[in-house]
Structure formats: structure tokens, C-alpha cells
Amino acid sequence: MGVWHVTLILILLAGSPLQEATLNGGDEGPQSSWLGEVFGVGREGVCMGDCLEGPWGLTLAFLPVQSPGKNTWNVLNSNNIPNVTADIVASNQPENVHPATVFYINVDKCDEEKQNRNSHSEETKKTTTQRPALGIQVLAGLVVALAQLASGCATTYAGATIPRLTDKNSTDLYLDEYNVSLFASLVNVGSLVGSISCGFLMVELGPRVATLVTLPAWLCAWIMIYFVNSVKLLHFAIFLLGTTKGVLENTPYTYMAEIAYMKYRGALSGVVDVCRALGMMFMYGIGALSLTWRQLALVVGISTSVPTFIGLLFLHDSPRWLANRGRFEETAKSLQFFRGSHYNIDEEYKDICDHVRERSIGSSIMHQLVYLKDVSILKRVGLLSAMVFLIQWGGNIVILSYTTVIFDEADSCDNNNVCSISVGAGRTLGALFFMLLVDYLGRRVAFIGPTLCSALCTLSLGVFFYVKNMVENGEELVSYVSWLPLVAVVIFSFNMAWVLAVFSILSGEILPGTFRQMGRAITGSANALSKTGAAQSFPNMKNTFGYHTVFWFCAFCGTASAVIPLLILETSGKSLEEIDRHYTRKQNKK
């Protein structure tokens, strides 16, 4: 077949707006969307758009006709092909295009490139898979989960070392009751500062790099604890540790929420929670050894920072963070990395980019803070903050920080270290079950059921201490159920692993990508503030009102927190973009 050329004579009025055109032909006419792209190329031998289908040999003249809302172009053709029209969408006129420019298209070249595209499309269908690769996402989850293991160690360091620091026979540093409460709460005060800083770091650097730059400071804090020679320096080192912990306990969940495929997001976030629970058990476990509190700090610092740092060097930044920064080419590469080379990312990539364009007003810190004016986003932040406040005042941080103190008061455990390890094992087991079941049960069921079970446990602890301390012959009565405090605390820890995991997932899911980093910082700060208040208040509350009142109050807060998931969308199985669009539509209807 010879070389056919189609001469397109475009007669345009100067200043006429034109951006995109679509030719809608009948059965005998060409159907194409090439016209808008002619202006972007306009040279012989280049296939533009979908190309003309067949060697029509047309001479087309487009004449402007006014029509309400848009410009309509009548099409004149020399071959009398029927039903050929073109609608021109109003926009800015292309630059550097003369109104009477003549363009040539080599139709044979068009046919050849069209066949190549069809061939490539068929080949892609054969080589791509319908499901993304899971292995790389699990591996990435394990790497960032090491940061949560570190956070878990910091959370329980006080509970594991207070017996050593309050030993009057020790030749090392000694903490009185005031300094003990300060020691237990300063890590949470530091965590508050770290959570705020985390938002700025994640906005500018992304969750992966934010973790990388924090790990050296994390290691320095543990080394400082090893070398301190005064109580004041110990408190400062614990505060610094808490500051780095505030970053490390927020970045992994944000990172996992943004890289995980929607159907795997719950389970992969569960991997992070398993490692956090393992960190707590790890701390209790090595705390039971004959290591001093100084040696304990050195072992934990090295073992949790070096492997995490090395692993993160081999991962990509979050695709959604890259998209928010306008780095779309890197977004595609990152998404392909986390979905596997044989998975077609086009649909997901388009959804991410479209959502960023719909939402984004800028990627800076101040631009993200502007989103707090959005009532929909403000409500979501408020619900998450209320949820974590009630969780922490529901007994979580009290039992974590004062495990050995509670067992001593209950006089129900012959070996406090063994009991503490049992508590850590219960939390780890809970996190494992959560990881396996969360995507089947949904977020609401996974939160409400365990929350009520946890409240029942703190209620039973309150009854135990009430009978022991307030009832005549109470100590003799509770001796028949001396096992109750240990069982209640272990079951509480099992269920609390579920509760905290759901909160962490929701805080990454229901906040939009254009606000997720700062939103996570705000909810993380609320978490740290709640933990600080609860941990600092516990010694005074138990002395003033008694253990029983403290645990009954915890039961009340835990029960109240079970209401909040009913006010939040069930997010299981939905993409992050679908979730945000749901809240946006809901707000727009109002």
C-alpha cells in the first residue's frame, strides 16, 4: 500500500479557544481524538492521538460556529463522509500555531503505530497479573516495623527498670517516688514533642527519610542513658529518648498506609503492631536477665537502630507522598516497586494523581495546616484524638508503665519478671491474631469487641483491689483468686493490642493524603499528651482514691471509647482515595 497523506486545513479564528477535540463519526467515518494533539506535534510522520483509522485521504475544514457553553466546529470534507463533527472544549488557545497552519499525517505510519500499541496492550495483558506482589510489601512492612519494635522497647523501658532504680540497696542511681513518676512520664512528654516534630519531618522529607534521620538520635539517647551519672541527666536522656520515639511510633503507620495495597492494608499494618508488641516483650524478656538498667539501654539501642537504618536504605519513598510533592514520575516508579514488575499500576496511579490534583493546594507545612479549615477533616482529627485519649485513660499506659508495681500491690505473682513477660506475650499474641483477622472482621468489630473486653478486665481489677483493701478480711478473700490480677492484665494486653492497632490504621486511613502527615502528627501528639497525663496522674490517684477507683475509672473510659468507631466509616477494603471522597461527598451534601 502506498503512502497516504491526509491534509488537514484548519481554518481558525485568531484568539479562538481550543484545547481538546473529539471526532465522532458514524459507521463509515473515522472516530478519533487526535485533533487536540495535532497542535502539540504538527509534523509529518508522527501518529497523533488514536490516529485516523484507514487511508481516508480526507481534506477537512473546521469552521467555528457559536453555541451556548462551548465552541462547535462544523466539519467540511471532500469525500462526503457523513456524521463527522467536532466539539472543541473552551480553554486557552495553543501557542505558536498559525490559524491557517497545514498539518500532514502519514496514515501508513499511523496504522503501524496503532498496531504496535494494540500488540503491546495484548502483551501487557498476558504478562501482567491482576494482584500485586505481596512479598515486597511484607518485606517493607517488616523493615519499618523494626522502628515500631524500637518504640515498644521505649514504652516499656520504665516498667522493666523501675524495680532496679528503686532498689535502696543498689550502688547505682536511686529514684524516690517523685522521680519514679517523672521517670515514667518523661518519655511520653518527649513523645509529645517528637510527634509534633514528626509532622514537619514527614511533610518535608516523607515518612521513610524522616525515620532515617531520626534513628541516629535514637541511638544517641540510649547511649546517653548508659553513661549518665545523675538523676537529672537520666531524666534528660529519657526525654530525648521520648522525642525520638514520638517520630518512630508515627512514621511506620503512615508509611504502611501509603504503600500497602488496599486489600492488604489491615494485615500489613498488623505486621507493624506485631513488632511493637514484640518490642515490649523483648524489653520485659531481657529485663528479666541479670543485666543492669544501663546495659539494658545499650543492648536495646544498638539492636533496634542499626538493622532498621540499613533496611530503609533499600526501600522507596511512599508513592502518595511523592505525588503530593508533584514528583509523579517517581510516584510511578515507587508504586511499581511496591506492586511488583508484573502488576499493571495504571488505574491505581491515575487514581492517586487525580486525587492529589482534586485536593492539593500545596505540599508545604502551612498548606497542610490550611486543611484544618475543612470541617470534614477537622471532625476526623477530633474523633481520632478523642479515641486515643479514652484508650490511654482506659488503662493502657498505666498497665504498661506500672506493671511490676501493680503486681507488687496485688501480691499475686511470685516472680514479677515472669509475669511481665506473660503480659508482653499476651500483647504479642493479640497483635498476631489481629493481623490475621482484621481484614475479615472489619475495623469496627476489631475495635469494639476488644475494647469492651479490656474494660471488663480493668473493672475486675478494681473489684479485686476494692475487696483486698476496703473489705474486712479482704486479703484472705482475695487469696482464693490470687491469679485474677495476672489473668486480667494478660487478657487486657491481648485485647489492647487490637484496640491500638485499629486506632493506628484508622489514623492513616481516614485522613486525606494531602493532610496525612500533619494529621498523624496531631493525633500522635494527642496520644502522647494522653499518655503523659495518665502516667503522671496514676501515683497521685492511687494514693488519693485507691487502686480500685483508678481501675473503675479506666473501665469507664474504655467503654466510652467503644462508641467512636460507630461514628467513623468502615474503611476495610477501600482505597485511601475512596475513603476521602466519601467524607468529601458527605460534607458537600450538608
Describe the largest sheet: 6 strands, mixed
Q: How many domain modules?
A: 2
Distance between the termini: 62 Å
Number of helices: 21
What coarse outline follows from CA principal-axis ratios?
globular
Low-confidence stretches: 1-114, 120-127
User: Roughly how many Å is the radius of gyration?
Assistant: 31 Å
Based on the structure given, which CATH architecture of the largest domain is correct?
Up-down Bundle
| Order of helical and strand elements | EEHEEEEHHHHHHHHHHHHHHHHHHHH
CATH superfamily grouping of the largest domain:
MFS general substrate transporter like domains
Strand order, main sheet: write it out. 2-5-4-3-1-6
